[in-house]
Records
---
Amino acid sequence: MKLASRQQRAHFVGASGLSTLELIIAMALFAIVATKAVMVMNSANEAYDNDSATMSLEDQARRTLDQIAYAIMGADRDTLFPDPSSPIFSTELQYFLNLGVDADGKVIYDDPEKISLSTDETQVIWRKNPDAPDERRVAWCNIVRPFLEGEEFNALDDNGNGIIDEKGLSFVVRKDAVTIRLCLERLTSGGETITQAVETIVTIRN
Amino acid sequence: MNHDFPAASQAVREVLETMRNEELEDIFALYNADPLDDPAGPGTAPGWRFDIEGFDPIEASPDQMVGTISFPTITPVGGVAQLREDTVDEDLGMPRDLSGDSIIDDKDHALDYVILPIKVEVDWLGRYGARHVEFFTMFAEIRK
């Protein structure tokens, strides 16, 4: 027994360290595990970026929609131009805000305002005194999609909302209520296109 | 779940804006639970229940919808719901005068109200169970 034990010890002492083959296998295993870990981290980061970008886009869409809704809410119904009823829509709306009445009971209006798409149809533009020398202009948003989500330019109601070929910003009026639809689109940092469509109804108060 | 409350709030706002687009005198008949008093004929009005896209109804939902519109009503035994000034509901500011005669009585004011308190509730099944949110508002006639 003692002799066998000595022979074993001698064998282990002589074989100390790793062989080249063992080293290569270990490195390969490590590389596989490391690659997997990096891939998981990358996809998690990508998912987080996409979620974050989607939420940010939805916030922006809602904020712009609220700005439009609150601007129109105080308008005088009789001053709305054009007056698009479904299935016709408009990408612009001009209106006057009713400021009250004077001593003679005559309605006093503020300067005209207009909300519309820009010429290239990517921006929502608010204007006061439109087309006048003293026009004021503010871009409320600059990533408007060419058409509403699910809609294509084909003279059909592709998304089934009752409106045909509606643009990324559209207004439809029914009695005193204006339905506003807005669709934004942008690229994420990973190059993916994300789209957010929002819609609201606002009833004109004056 | 955090996203649900703003979405519910937005949906309720749209419902209220849609209601505001109707004549005040028709709103009670259009949005109460009784289909027989609908202005354009029985069963033609939107009614007291509404749905919100993407919201799952709770198990107790009678019609798989999530939203409920209600008014200060009292239902006499064997009768239909009456719009009443003597309803007790602190959230709706009741009892109060609804017809503009400065008197709080026990009559049905479905046809002569000038103030209409409205409660809108949403009950849905969220990720962590049943959720509930309610909103109160009041429509009034503005005589120009």
Note: The mean pLDDT of chain A is 86.
---
Amino acid sequence: MASAVDHHHGPGTGITRWLFTTNHKDIGSMYLIFSLLMFFIGGTMALIIRMELVEPGLQVVQPEFFNQMTTMHGLIMVFGAVMPAFVGLANWMVPLMIGAPDMALPRLNNFSFWLLPFAFFMMLSTLFMDGGAPNFGWTFYAPLSTTYAPPSVTFFIFAIHMAGVSSILGAINVIVTIMNMRAPSMSYMKMPLFVWTWLITAFLLIAVMPVLAGTVTMMLTDIHFGTSFFDAGGGGDPVLFQHLFWFFGHPEVYIMILPAFGIISQIVPTFSRKPLFGYSSMVYATSSIALLSFTVWAHHMFTVGIPLVGELFFMYATMLISVPTGVKVFNWVATMFRGSMTFETPMLFAIAFIVLFTIGGLSGLMLAISPADFQYHDTYFVVAHFHYVLVPGAVFSIMAAAYYWMPKWTGNMYDEYLGKWHFWCSFIGLNLTFFPMHFVGLAGMPRRIPDYSIQFADFNMISSLGGFLFGFSQLIFVLVVVKCVRGGAPAKAVVWEGAEGLEWSIPSPAPYHTFEKPPEVK
Amino acid sequence: MQERSCSSVVLIIFASLCSVSVQADWALNMTKGVTEVSNSIYSLHMQIFWVCVVIAVAVFSVMLWSIIHHRKSVGAKAEQFHENTTVELIWTIVPVLILVAMAIPATTTLIEMYDTDDSDVDIQVTGYQWKWQYQYLGEDLSFFSNLSTNPDEINNKVKKNVNYLLEVDEPLVVPIGKKIRFLVTSNDVIHSWWVPAFAVKRDAIPGFINESWTRIEEEGVYRGQCAELCGKDHGFMPIVVKAVSDEEYQLWLADKKASIAAEVAAASRVWSLSELMVKGEQVYQKNCAACHQPGGQGIPPMFPALKGGVITTQQQGEHINIVLEGRAGTAMQAYAAQLSAVDLAAVITYERNAWGNDTGDIVTPQSIQTMLKSK
């Protein structure tokens, strides 16, 4: 039955292929499908939120359920959609880009994926529990998330632990793979930028996920074992929670954007038919962003009453982080400059990424100005800002990557016509949704409210219409993927005219086993 | 047919947009405010905004120009350059200089905001789920400020008024031209006291006292909201500040103190069941209905039902105890310090007799006073 040489067997059959697989391509696909599912669940919650906010007054849901929706939407999108999607892309592409036969720790790889469905099953099951799901925001500030939390908070804590273990194991695997399994003569400074950004991201994950795990454990003991880490009544400190959370949370933001930088740095040169401008400055910029990300956490806490000196330090450090970020944007534009560009769907998403991420980055610079942040903080201006970096940032880069590598994964070209429809509907939808949020935020609308005063009515209705356009246009993406998996024009080995890198040296679709002998690197 | 239904959808959307815009405005920008600090913040905001606009225009025009001229379809040939030290140095150093230029005024404003010394009026602001308490330090005056919007407006049964969700029963009254220091804290979870017109936003944190200050230049009514998610009714705890001249402020102070004294005196007279029920319903709707619901059915298990509950129909002593002292580890607050003896007696009486509880129990203000004294 199986071939005599065990190392050369093909995929298993039936459900056990997916349960027991140690193949990086299978695991990568599972991560990507899982994250797409979570994207739709989290997206449905966003649409419930937008439905309630169409008009002033309470129409669709009650405040307590509204709070559960904002909380779960954030948690699902961050931990269930964006992070697993990047891990899926790393699984598929890192071995192919460095000429490795698989990830370094294949069984661990299987384990870190299979933790996720259980973690999120538990997280979602809280919606059906007595007292409802977590309702304290995805930032779960104590004591709202401890003393005043619904009983389901314990399940939420356990789900975060499981997702966290999954992330740490995944990160270890990426680091070990990149450090040990590069093709001979692929030095660090020859690695594709997607590999570089993932290497740095993996270090960030290992550094901060344990902090999150510690924080939720402290919550757990506060709730069940009588400690008072975050309870002022017992000598604890609610602000300590915020310091711990954001010491995790700010690097977490970069965990969700650095791999995106890597993806864009692969796609822009390909469709500009020109080498990436400033490769080494890209590497240094990414590293400095990662290092600086540990020194800016309290800019999320400008109004909690940290001392003046602290306030100034975090303001300066945050402003500084815009310099390496700016370098990246300038490098991408310089790569496009005097190239020979074409505009297939991956490139459209990549260009939209650069423009809209820059807008999100610039509003981030505004937020860095601490005195002004006293007016912006906890308003829709912040909601607009982080959705601009996360939706056309992280999500668009994932979409770009999916279109860019889908022919390599499936062996078929995707439907370019549908891809462009998907792009334009998403682009218009998201700008309609999130741009007006800048205006209502500046006009004074606080975030996380189920009902608002009438002066904010017009822009909220536009946001809601945009939200529905954006949400439903993601169904086009599902159609594209299904069509592409089932057939289409056969893809060549080098799918894109200007594409360079080891992943294009193997046939399309990528065989089940690749690079069993290390390739030559120029 | 399909075309017609499509255009009618567009019409409906358009019509609904128009109907809303009758009452709403299309405000795009931050309010300038009525204090010196809020004006400095506004100008910082505009400076950094224009810096961002200039950077965006510069970057996007180079990009757009490349997209138009360096496309394969117009025969552009790709160059192969991939670095240029001079350019890279320029686009690293110029942003640093811009940032330094921005950091200087920002630092000055921040130092100004942190200078809470030499205040004329000190007010302690305490956040509760979901209302604000204002204590005038040194004046022996304190009161609560609750949302006063009619629930029917929230539930779309009647038309919303112009101050929908931004109106309270007892606004904070302060004098203009004086340095007012706010000492902000919380009784339960974290809240955040925010009035955009003053650019004052301070988190109210249990166990901590945060300081902030303002000096209002114009008389007027200024409205704000809680800015930190604090549970179910986070969207329903507005702030209203009435800034008046110093003379008017002094009059108001005297008036307010007199009315509180009258309320204390009312505790010593005899109250009938029907009087207590009328008063109790008002107190209940203002203080209790958010959690236990207007009909007393609660939202179990977080907020227990009072209608037909064991405690509210049988255990009177326990009932009074919970209302006075709260219940540790839950959202149930201690009302002994929040409500007057009359209000406490009335609300407990109301809860024991409303919604078919019909115990016939009367809890008198005098008995509440005795209990409070013995603690």
Note: Strands of chain B lie at 121-128, 131-136, 141-145, 172-175, 180-186, 191-195, 200-204, 210-214, 220-226, 238-244.
